[in-house]
Design a protein that fits this description.
Blueprint (H helix, E strand, L loop, with lengths): L18 H11 L7 H28 L7 H11 L2 H20 L12
Helix pairs in contact: 2-3, 3-4
């Protein structure tokens, strides 16, 4: 989930946003460009929508297999079903890389340490 964006004072809840991640990716691709607040709002909505679509499809796949827990297999299959060709393959490669980096880090759980 996205980190909460900072709000001024004690006005209420912190609003979660993918803005910091969108900016990081934009700076990697085009270091000299910036993004307007309206465009950032659209990108945040887009990322939330894609997340919901993938999570919903993965949930339906898990329900069909009569499982109560989503695994990486359901997420990967949902991505292949929802995203077109090269985008799905690229997303799968980056997702696999992120999961392996997380499990191999010192703080993350490893496959050996998880209960069977």
């Amino acid at each position: 989930m996205p980190k909460p964006a900072k709000t001024a004072g004690k006005r209420g809840k912190k609003k979660e946003s993918y803005a910091i991640y969108v900016k990081k990716v934009l700076k990697q691709v085009h270091p000299d460009k910036d993004i307007s607040s309206i465009a950032m709002s659209m990108m945040n909505s887009f990322v939330n929508d894609i997340f919901e679509y993938i999570a919903g499809e993965a949930s339906r796949l898990a329900r069909c297999k009569e499982r109560s827990t989503l695994s990486t297999r359901e997420i990967q299959t949902a991505m292949c079903l929802l995203l077109p060709g090269e985008l799905a393959r690229h997303g799968m490669a980056l997702g696999t890389k992120a999961v392996s980096k997380y499990t191999s880090s010192d703080g993350g759980p490893t496959i050996e340490s998880q209960p069977i």
